[in-house]
Design goal:
This protein is of the alpha+beta class. It has 2 domains: 31 residues; 117 residues, Beta Barrel (Barwin-like endoglucanases). It is 20% helix and 36% strand. It has a 6-stranded mixed β-barrel with strand order 2-6-3-5-4-7. A hairpin with a 7-residue loop joins β1 and β2. The relative contact order is 0.20.
Length: 154
């Protein structure tokens, strides 16, 4: 008699939604932590207008572009060239100079951000083929790296 009443149906729906919310909250607590760590250091720059800069250091995994992207346009409009020291990052402004250090061998280079990517949660930066060779992880696919960059704050 009461099985199909609107009140009972709404209560069942509400209980179902509450159960789903509780299960999602439980799953979220069991997720692995993000492997990238960020350290931000704010230092004043010696200049007349005393503009400060923000140095950021992030640790995570890097990969490199496949050969098939050679000559293709990047998001910034320039063409990808494997021999140039360039990189892709999801959020950094184009033209940002990023110092990438391979943590397994200590090799370090400067690359310029000219593309968006990598589009994977595992990797934080894509470097060009030439940069991967300089860093010593070409043909290995990936490497744990530390990236540091300076963003000017007005």
């Amino acid at each position: 008699m009461f099985a199909n009443s609107p009140t009972i149906v709404n209560m069942k729906y509400c209980l179902f939604l509450c159960g789903m919310l509780m299960s999602f909250a439980g799953f979220a607590q069991n997720l692995p932590e993000n492997k990238a760590s960020v350290v931000s250091i704010r230092t004043p720059v010696d200049s007349a207008d005393s503009v400060s800069s923000n140095v950021s250091v992030i640790t995570g995994y890097a990969t490199y572009y496949a050969k098939k992207f050679e000559g293709r346009k990047t998001t910034s409009g320039t063409r990808y060239r494997g021999k140039k020291m360039t990189a892709a990052h999801l959020t950094l402004p184009f033209g940002t100079i990023v110092t990438v250090t391979n943590l397994s061998n200590g090799k370090s280079i400067d690359v310029v951000v000219n593309d968006r990517g990598p589009h994977s949660k595992k990797y934080m930066i894509d470097v060009s083929e030439g940069a991967a060779k300089e860093l010593g992880f070409y043909r290995k696919g990936q490497s744990k790296v530390e990236i540091s960059y300076v963003l000017d704050v007005d």
